[in-house]
Design a protein that fits this description.
Distance between the termini: 43 Å
Helix content: 25-40%
Length: about 500
């Protein structure tokens, strides 16, 4: 269990909260100190028993400001919690303190042509439901969109449904603006735009408390859910690449899954002929003739087609892809795991098939198609039964030797993960917005390496992107009390 914060500061914090909802009940603390980290056998062990000392549930930015200011005065560590759908322990307090639940801070604040702005605790599905009548929708969302908050997605997510068309969240233009609150006795609000948004994106809340987010939108097409069967996995991969490289074809998800993975989905397996692999896809209705041609060209068959959410398999189709896939696999076999391997853009087809062949002894392959840095790639790995951390490390080495880049999803720390670049801009910005180092303790790269980091490390190289790791000098002068347009960071006083 976490080393508890002294009771006196917690009592003083509670006294400062007034009418703001809070709890120190052990059952509440256990429930609100968890996310979906149990998908990882490593995290199941090292994160067991880690809990907060107080749970706080503000319902407005003003209540959040009061709670944060009190935590700063009493030096109480802060972990911000959204919908609890993270899979890497992003929402787990590693050093006790306060869990601040922002799911009560909700609402769509405004919509302009091509963008929408919402408060951090707003469910992603609720944003789409509100703006769809205007003919627009978010460009991308996670497979957990019905339970995930927009703040949690941007703070801890990476890509998702829509990434095969639009790229990843980190790509320029996929996050318009992020407003963050500082952790000081008198908290301030800072607006990040341009490349500076990536200081807060995928930082697990270590570089400021996200309060508002503005994201780009796209036309809300009539999406068709497709389950496509292929006799051979090579045909499924060829189709996936062909359809993703057809830039005029509107698609939202393209998920190739090798036999026997389809048999692990009870509601989908009856649709797939014995021994076949499959691609799960969402395509705009007007693109269906082109999709059908590409399916036929690759000897596939569309075995199910319906409007979004109308399938015979109970759930929206995207809830069988991306992060949801492993949840379904583990319902059949708790021991199954994978790695987040990034395939090279050059020779993508050959790379996927080579891994499939060379790691056939390990297990079948599952990948998600995505774009980043303007090119097409895929992420995923073989799916196999966990043996030990040593074996997981060996598989990591083998995959990297095969030309893949690995991000470690079996750790709660950014340092061991390697998915987010942490450079001078992030470190300096954190120093300015979190002077007492209370946010996301133990998770950011400038923390001292500890037993938790070491116990979840793998020999992974991490990912890299064309967008510079340092984001130039954005954020280094962020708190100067003057309007800032060039570096994309604007203090509250200048907004």
């Amino acid at each position: 269990m976490s080393a508890p914060v002294d009771s006196l500061p917690i009592e003083r914090l509670a006294a400062d909260l007034g009418d703001i909802e809070y709890s120190v009940d052990e059952r509440v603390l256990r429930a609100k100190s968890r996310d979906r980290f149990a998908q990882s056998p490593l995290l199941r062990e090292v994160m067991r028993g880690l809990t907060a000392d107080i749970y706080i549930a503000p319902v407005s930015k003003e209540e959040l400001r009061i709670a944060v200011g009190s935590c700063a005065r009493h030096r109480i560590p802060i972990t911000v919690r959204g919908g609890g759908t993270g899979q890497f322990g992003q929402g787990v307090p590693l050093t006790g303190g306060a869990v601040i639940d922002v799911t009560g801070i909700v609402g769509v604040l405004g919509q302009r042509l091509g963008t929408v702005r919402a408060l951090c605790g707003t469910l992603i599905a609720d944003i789409d439901a509100e703006i769809r009548p205007t003919g627009w929708e978010l460009r991308m969302h996670p497979s957990t969109t019905r339970k995930a908050t927009i703040g949690g997605y941007v703070a801890g997510g990476h890509a998702g449904i829509g990434s095969c068309q639009w790229g990843i969240l980190r790509d320029r233009g996929n996050i318009t603006a992020i407003e963050v609150m500082t952790v000081e006795e008198e908290p301030r609000l800072i607006e990040l735009t341009g490349d500076a948004v990536n200081i807060a994106h995928h930082a697990y809340g270590a570089t400021g408390i996200i309060t508002e987010i503005e994201l780009p939108t796209a036309p809300a097409w009539n999406w068709q859910e497709l389950v496509i069967a292929f006799p051979e996995f090579a045909q499924a991969v060829r189709f996936a690449i062909d359809v993703c490289e057809s830039e005029g074809v509107l698609k939202k998800v393209v998920s190739p899954q090798q036999h026997p993975l389809p048999t692990l989905y009870p509601d989908l397996s009856r649709l797939i002929p014995e021994g076949h692999s499959m691609v799960l896809m969402m395509a705009a209705e007007q693109s269906m003739p082109n999709v059908a041609d590409l399916v036929a060209d690759n000897s596939g068959a569309i075995v199910s087609r319906c409007d979004e959410g109308a399938g015979s398999y109970r759930l929206p189709l995207y809830e069988y892809t991306w992060g949801h896939s492993m949840m379904h696999f583990q319902r059949k076999n708790r021991g199954l795991i994978g790695l987040l391997a990034l395939y090279p853009q050059d020779g993508l087809y050959e790379s996927i098939l080579r891994v499939c062949e060379d790691f056939a002894d390990l297990g079948p392959t599952h990948v998600e198609m995505k774009r980043f840095d303007g090119g097409l790639s895929a992420q995923g790995s073989p799916v196999w039964e966990f043996e030990s951390q040593e074996h997981l490390a060996e598989v990591t080495r083998r995959l990297q030797a095969a030309g893949l880049s690995i991000a470690n999803t079996h750790t709660p720390t950014l340092l061991a993960s390697g998915m987010k670049p942490w450079a001078a801009a992030e470190a300096e910005f954190k120093r300015r917005v979190d002077p007492y180092r209370l946010l996301a303790q133990g998770k950011s790269d400038d923390e001292v390496e500890d037993d938790l980091t070491r116990s979840t490390q793998l020999p992974n190289s991490g990912w890299s992107y064309r967008l510079t790791d340092s984001i130039g000098e954005s954020g280094t002068a962020a708190l100067d009390p003057a309007p800032t347009a060039a570096n994309g960071v604007t203090p509250e006083s200048a907004r």
